[in-house]
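agent> step 3/5: call structure_predict on target 'Fluoride-specific ion channel FluC' (Campylobacter armoricus).
agent> reason: downstream docking stage needs a structural representation; sequence fetched in step 2, passing through unchanged.
tool.input:
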Amino acid sequence: MIGTILAVGFGGFLGAIARMITSSFFSKIIPHNYPYGTLFVNIIGSFLIGLFFSYANSKGVHILTKSLVSTGFLGAFTTFSTFSYENLLFLQSGNYFQFLLNIFLNVALCLLAVWLGFLILK
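tool.output (status=ok):
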């Protein structure tokens, strides 16, 4: 268990730094009022988790490596990558109701939660 915790922590450390660098880079090269840095981080993270799990599922990857890369690095880089992967699994299994429900609940409830959090400390 301690190995998994350390792997996730180290991956998270690297992922958070990579997020800051990547987001800043895209925000500087595409200056605009839209948060392009976040958009590109989410796209890149979703692409990377697709690559990683495709490889991990076909070749077999040690659980510590999975924890370091998926939960740690990509989790800190963008939680949107996990959201995207879970929705892909719903689509691949033909579970369209769960797919739509997951998208709706995540977007609607997270927007509601951030709004409530903002209101509480306003």
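agent> step 4/5: record observation. The chain has a mean pLDDT of 90.
agent> proceeding.
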